[in-house]
């Protein structure tokens, strides 16, 4: 098993945001998590990537228990993620964002980057090459020297992918990668995800755009009020009564 959660639970005070979730993320596939707002999707990502410590349950990565590892250790094992909102250094170029973002992830040492120490300079070349490689992969070569504050929403989404890819991940968790962009751009991001899978990277994404999910995902988990209410292929999910009820019948307005 590649990534597996067992009985994964997160409580915030009296609220159970994720409740007893068993889910297997399949290697080399596009795995998706869907569900109404407040269902616990982002919290699930935070638990798997080490940003939150579970209240109960476990996270297994390639047979190892990573439940209590801090985010930087999880990242080093090859688990990368993007956030629902991408915070870029707006006054820096796209290239520098990817270089610095990569360094922050690997060394957690902002001072090296700011003060340009010898270590920083030594490693800069390598980081720069890696950054150029992922910027090419994500289709951003033409804007590497533009300020991040001046690029489009869609380009920012691609930079978020580039940041995740710069860590040489085995699996990438993408939190609503297509939020706030148009259908044509969404199609482009879908193609990029397929390209990642072809390269051997496992994808796990949260997304509200159902058409995209249904076309793209090999495996889908549906969360509702923190609980897994269904799991299966697109077709299985689309025909699942409980899912239809959660989306159309229940109160999905959190
Ligand atoms: N750090 C936190 N502290 C308290 N409550 C939180 C925290 N993070 C998320 N929650 C709550 O947990 C529930 C699930 O949130 P979230 O995982 O962000 O949902 P989703 O991503 O599915 O929209 C929500 O009710 C949210 O308010
Ligand atoms: Mg969310």
Q: Secondary-structure blueprint of this entry?
A:
Layout: E1 3-12, E2 15-25, E3 30-34, H1 41-48, E4 56-61, E5 64-65, H2 71-76, E6 79-81, H3 94-107, H4 110-115, H5 118-137, H6 153-165, E7 171-175, H7 183-198, E8 202-206, H8 210-216, E9 219-224, E10 227-232, H9 234-238, H10 241-249
Parallel strand pairs: 3-8, 3-9, 6-7, 7-8
Antiparallel strand pairs: 1-2, 1-4, 4-5, 9-10
Helix pairs in contact: 3-5, 3-6, 5-6
The structure holds adenosine-5'-diphosphate (ADP) and magnesium ion (MG).
Residues 41-42, 84 line the site of magnesium ion.
Give a nutshell description of this structure.
By secondary structure, the chain is an alpha/beta fold. 41% of the residues lie in helices and 23% in strands. Helix 3 packs across helix 5 (118-137), helix 3 packs parallel to helix 6 (153-165) and helix 5 packs across helix 6.
